[in-house]
Design brief:
Largest sheet: 3 strands, parallel
Helix content: 40-55%
Number of helices: 12
Strand content: 5-15%
Number of strands: 5
Strand order of the largest sheet: 3-4-5
Radius of gyration: 23 Å
CATH superfamily: P-loop containing nucleotide triphosphate hydrolases
Distance between the termini: 18 Å
Structural class: mainly alpha
């Protein structure tokens, strides 16, 4: 269920929002007087990868102001899902990254919560914001929100290129070790020193971030940076179908196996 107006989950499964027909916007708006009734089952698309999709659209941005004026607004998605929940083993709800009624609806409807974080410098600020949202939901609706798992994407220091080592690279590495042993290594240039310092600073930042995330979540998974993720998105395929053996594909498979234990 793509409940994000950016519709990345929709395009990531090979569908252009403009061409997907009725979408989750119609489901939310059908709760208001004057809009035609639309159930979740009416908008589901069967994709070529075997994943059923309830698509999103940029129009969903306009739903949020209306929802604020709707009674029982926090439970709209939960009620909508009740009509299809017996069809599926798992229903994944993708919510937008910013606070609003769409996020609250996703949290209220969910049995389990997965929080996705970027490895950038501002990710920890987002965790603090989420904690505030969870507290507000408990205070207003009486529902305890406890995240089960955190995923940190683009994890690493320099990325990866998913390429195999060139033939003879091991020999070259051995020769370099011997050469460094026999000959005095030149003093690093100021640029090289700066690069090392920046690398050490980034390493310390990531280490501190991991400690903090592990303190707040019962389980934490990392997904390394991989250009294959973006290739998969461009082709409208999940990484599990496009490059399952890649480092990112293997990481997401491990996450999927963890989630499958919840049912």
């Amino acid at each position: 269920m793509d409940c994000d107006p950016q519709a990345n989950a929709t395009t990531g499964l090979g569908y252009t929002p403009e061409n997907a027909g009725r979408n989750i916007y119609d489901v939310f708006m059908s709760t208001l007087e004057g809009f035609p009734e639309t159930k979740v089952g009416d908008i589901i698309i069967k994709t070529g990868t075997g994943i059923d999709l309830a698509p999103s659209h940029l129009d969903l941005v306009g739903a949020d102001p209306y929802l604020y004026r709707t009674e029982g607004r926090a439970g709209i998605l939960k009620a909508a899902l009740a009509g299809i929940s017996d069809r599926y083993d798992y229903i994944l709800v993708d919510t937008p990254p910013s606070m609003g009624q769409l996020v609250i609806n996703g949290l209220v409807a969910a049995d389990h919560i997965i929080v996705t974080l970027d490895s950038g410098s501002f990710a920890l600020n987002g965790i603090s914001t989420l904690a505030t949202i969870f507290g507000d939901i408990k205070e207003d609706l009486g529902k305890e929100i406890r995240p089960d798992l955190a995923i940190i994407s683009r994890w690493g220091e320099g990325g990866e290129h998913e390429s195999k080592k060139p033939a003879g690279e091991e020999k070259t590495g051995l020769l370099s070790i011997i050469r460094n042993f026999l000959y005095k290594k030149a003093e690093p240039t100021p640029e090289e020193q700066k690069a090392v310092e920046e690398q050490n600073t980034e390493h310390e930042r990531l280490l501190a971030m991991m400690v903090e995330v592990k303190r707040r979540f019962p389980a934490v998974y990392t997904v390394p940076y991989s250009p294959l993720v973006y290739e998969a998105q461009k082709r409208g395929l999940p990484i599990s179908h496009f490059a399952p053996e890649s480092s990112a594909g293997a990481a997401y498979k491990a996450i999927a196996e963890e989630v499958m234990k919840w049912n």
